[in-house]
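Notebook entry, structure prediction.
Reason for the run: the old model in the group folder had no record of what sequence produced it. Starting over properly, with the input documented here first.
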Amino acid sequence: MAEAYDVIVIGGGAAGLMCALTAGQRGRRVLVVEHANRVGKKILMSGGGRCNFTNTGTTPANFLSANPHYCKSALARYTPADFIELVERHRIAYHEKELGQLFCDVSSKLIVKMLLDECADAGVRVETSCSVERVLHGEGEAPFRLHTARGAFAAPRLVIATGALSIPSLGATGFGYELARQFGHSVLPTRAGLVPLTLSGKHQERLADLSGVALPVTARCNGRSFSNQMLITHRGVSGPAILQISSYWQPGDDLRLDLLPGHEAIAWLRAQQLERPAAELKTVLADAMPKRFAQRLCELWLSNKPMKQYTAPELKQLAATLQDWPLTASGTEGYRTAEVTLGGVDTDELSSSTMESRRVPGLHFVGEVVDVTGWLGGYNFQWAWASGHAAGMAV
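New structure, fully documented this time:
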């Protein structure tokens, strides 16, 4: 005989726990089933263990989706201020790092504890190490039936909060996509997002020994640009600017870097020529970027000579190269290190206000399994809270 609940949530991550506690607070009998040995593993590792739990500047423009309007309703109804109020009520100290990114002062464990305490207060049952073997859909008052490692459960409402494919070492799988297809939903093509880019051949050879060098850049691709740090790695490039642009880049796309962000390159070079005519270009550039990187640029991409020897057209060409430096990436590091998964359950088949399936009444999808992907910097957690809350208010 299956144990009956009002709502069953598959997945004990950010979106699943938010959905569960919201529904529980509304008097629903809620069960969360999590296949891993603990809930919130992605929360725990995020932000270097400090959890970048939201971004105060969150808008729909910070998200990628085949339907850019889909996220608007949920984000408007559960805002960063709403989550901050919850964090403050639990007396969790936090700080703003940069660009609206909020982090815990002490540990991401406090965010998981907060969510679990809220679930406990709302009477939510959370089962870990509980893998789902089968999900059936039939008739009657509790049409969704789950066969799990902990027995059989049934409910009239089922929420898929399984996450996606990024960071399989934390237990990420494509199970949510399998369930979506089982219930007749389309799943848009997935790929790794917020992920380091790899270089190959001569492009990698030219930079590999500079691994560990970081510099500010503006990365541009497909009409998008992000200004932040780039980190050179053994296999390619990483750092916030690269992670951000990776969500907009695919193999073969043109990727350009401004190596002098914040400067009008030609004006800066002309000023350097006047002030330091005897200084070589590599010495001058070393004031604006790491010395080793400046030297490598001058060895392979730029001519190096005293500033006074550059003609006006040559300075113009230098400026053009420095502000539009081509970076030929060959691929990404993949789901292994990706912070998010692009693509997912097609939002055209879901209600934007309740996250409910338009195909199967009582079935909801929240969080990363859905085709909504945020930028780096707390946006994906805000989508988890907002989508989880939207479903939690509807189930």
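Summary: The longest helix spans residues 379-392.
The old model has been moved to the deprecated folder.
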